[in-house]
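JOB MANIFEST
job_type = single_chain_structure
chain_count = 1
residues = 195
[input]
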Amino acid sequence: MTEQKEKLKSVRDNLEELLRAPHSDMYDPDEIIENCVSILDEVLGNQQTFKVWEYYITPDQRIYKIRGYSQDRELYTVDCFDQKKKVFGTAHVWHKDYFGKDRQATAEEIGLFKRAEHFHSKNRKYSEFKNGDIVQNKKTGKIGYAQHVDEDGDVVVVYKSDKVLNTSNYKCTGALYLVLIMTAEELEAAQEVRE
């Protein structure tokens, strides 16, 4: 029996199991149907293709970018941002276990991913600012430093004008429109090198 016929027989057996199964918690009809559809898609060649460096999102709101995959396209390397937990990381995942009902990420979702990726590259959690960070306000274009960060993540930024000797303090609630240019730690390390 060919591999495709074996897979189709598996679908038939799954469906027969579903028809004969007593209605109980032991059998999950949705899971059996999903399994059948997955096998049929594989046999018919209907599997969704995922491209390297493209962004996707899972039904449970994890945005990911595919960085590479194994020769047989079964094991993928992805960078992933979990929106619920606000956690960013890299993982190696099995195609059949990870990808399913995912869709391409929207521009807004890609923006969230890139923000998380940027903070991760600075060894920070998503939108984590610390006192002394150099930041830029996306709304005004002004550059300043974080003078105070409270427990909620709200940031008081001090902007200094080159032409005038005044200082304007501005509290950014949630700090979502602040861009982290340089961390306080990077600034300190740069100053140590200068000395």
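[summary]
The longest helix spans residues 3-20.
Residues 75 and 119 are 27 Å apart (CA to CA).
exit_status = 0
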